[in-house]
Amino acid sequence: MKVAFFGSPAVALPALNSLIQAGHEIKLVITQPDRPAGRGKKLTPPPVKVFARDHGLPCLQPEKIRRDEQVLEALKQAEPEVNVVVAYGQIIPASIIYLPPFKTLNVHFSLLPKYRGAAPVQWAILNGDRKTGVTIMELNEKMDEGPILAQQEVEILSGETARELETRLSYLGARLLIETLARINEIERVEQNPELATYAPRLTKEQGKINWQEPARVIDLKVRAFSPWPGAFCFLDGKKLDILSGQPITGMFPNSSPGEIIQIDRSGVYVACGQNTAYLIEKIKPESKKEMPAYAFSLGGKIKVGTRLG
User: Fold this and answer.
1) Which residue from 30, 165, 226, 256 has the fewest beta carbons nearer than 10 Å?
2) Domain 2-196: which CATH class?
3) Domain extent listing, the chain
4) Closest CA relative to residue 269, chosen from 303, 301, 240
5) Distance between CA atoms of 159 and 6, rounded to whole angstroms?
6) pLDDT 10s digits, 105-162
7) What is the C-alpha to C-alpha distance for residues 259 and 152, in angstroms, rounded to an integer?
């Protein structure tokens, strides 16, 4: 089948690679423009562009696809039989959605209609869900509201971060996409029930701020959900301290107040939390420094038992 592929980050690559391996012809790749990245803010291409270049695939990078007539004209010339969208990052106009005979399929990392929106994986972890999954749906002009062609459910693993879960779902979604395309003529489209819809808006950096008054389990969910972006953080002497990994510790700490460091050992730094719980910080990134084990950071004398984190 002739395919136009829309995607940008690394999680879109399993689907694109699977389409090629399954014998589909990629007529055109649409991805985001190059963006500044890293400390030096060097202009960096999205992973999908790098893949397309390495595999000799034609690639376009519209700044605003809704206003770019050249993209629409290129798609008309490419004559795809179906568009496939995986984490593209822009709203696609109706003129493109309905252009191919089989319209536009989207690989969405949730069990729609739950978690419509930009951050379904992060919100599933943040809310403490035990299960999530992948949906193959037909795009329409509304956000993630199109009919469903296929779904597959998976359990969220203990301690799994958003990056780890999203990576796992990207491979699951790639397999489900290939299976769906193989039976696209016979698959029944199932309309979503709007009464069951929930939303997963894009996260903000401010949401990553840790409140030590909350129980350790809630803090652990935030650390996992905000990994790698936008990151969970607290403050030490007015400087930002990113919490990269850790785990909740249950037990009674009657003489400790939330935010107080109650123990330090080679496992890391233990911080008192709400409801008589504690959170073990295992890896951190101090402001303007590289990431490191929390215990190694403590050896510098910056923190000790009794220190309070803000």
Assistant:
1) 256
2) alpha beta
3) 2-196, 205-298
4) 303
5) 31
6) 999 999 999 999 999 999 999 999 999 999 999 999 999 999 999 999 999 999 999 9
7) 40
Beta strands 25-30; 2-7: pairing state:
parallel
Q: Measuring CA to CA, how many Å separate 300 from each of 289, 292, 304?
A: 13, 12, 10
pTM above 0.85, yes or no: yes
Residues in the chain: 310
pLDDT tens digits, one per residue of 62-84 = 999 999 999 999 999 999 999 99
Pairing of strands 82-86, 104-108: parallel
Closest by Cα among 78, 28, 85 to 58: 28
User: How far apart, in whole angstroms, are the C-alpha atoms of residue 104 and residue 144?
Assistant: 12
Q: How would DSSP label each residue in 24-93?
A: -EEEEEE-PPPEEETTTTEEE--HHHHHHHHTT--EE--SSGGG-HHHHHHHHHH--SEEEEES--SPPP
Q: Strands, E, within 139-216: which ranges?
A: 148-155
Task: Return d(Cα 169, Cα 148) in angstroms, integer.
Answer: 17
Contact 106, 149 (CB under 8 A): no
- The distance from CA 102 to its chain's CA centroid, rounded to whole angstroms, is 27
User: Is residue 53 within 8 Å of 46, Cβ to Cβ?
Assistant: no
